[in-house]
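FYI - complex with guanosine-5'-monophosphate, inputs then prediction.
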Amino acid sequence: MGSRGNIFVLSAPSGAGKTSIIQGLRARFPEFVYSVSHTTRPPRPGEQEGRDYYFVSPETFRRMAAAGQFLEWARVYGADYGTSLLPLEAPLAAGQDVLLDVDPQGARNVRRRFPDSVLIFILPPSVAALEERLRARGTDADQTIAARMEVALDSIRQAIDYDYLVINADLPQAVEEVTLVVRATGLRLSRRRPQLERLLANGGPPRHPWPAP
Ligand code: 5GP
């Protein structure tokens, strides 16, 4: 039997370019499961139901949370966001890797439930750049931008708990760096231990080539 899939958790303050990085990762790793969260916030222009989020009412969200359907959920910027567990279970068991885009509270809860998950924090090149990007997006009112800046600064303080830090000054390089983390995780001995143990038990290291990861 192959080993379980890896869980990669990507967090970033909004405006750090995480969405673009995830787009880049989708091109590199089309076989990943990209979890689509449920949220109670309204869709932004251009966002699509089922692609960006499942947009649900607070009642539906509460019902799902009470029924234990979320791997984790958290309140961010006054709205609720949750990762549903069911669509991830079968792929993980089949060895497929999963990518979650959650805030730092969510990341901590994912780690509590899946201690082997790999936590990656994306930093903007500077706080000034972050504010500029938030304004350039032009979808949020000034007041919302100020509130998002507060939350952004607070989330950056929580980057200390992550495994990897990627600074998004240059998008292709940031995608490359996350790609390196994914590749290195695939080479972890813990991922390949059963395979290695089987080989060593069958009369020691084989003469023929090692199986690919
Ligand atoms: P946005 O409203 O800008 O799409 O996302 C706001 C924040 O919510 C981001 O930091 C994003 O990572 C976080 N988020 C999105 N989906 C989830 C989720 O399922 N769980 C948690 N904990 N955070 C989420």
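The pocket of guanosine-5'-monophosphate is lined by residues 11, 14, 37, 41, 72-74, 76, 81-83, 101-103, 105-106 (CB under 6 Å). Strands lie at 7-11, 33-34, 38-39, 54-55, 70-76, 79-84, 98-101, 118-123, 164-167.
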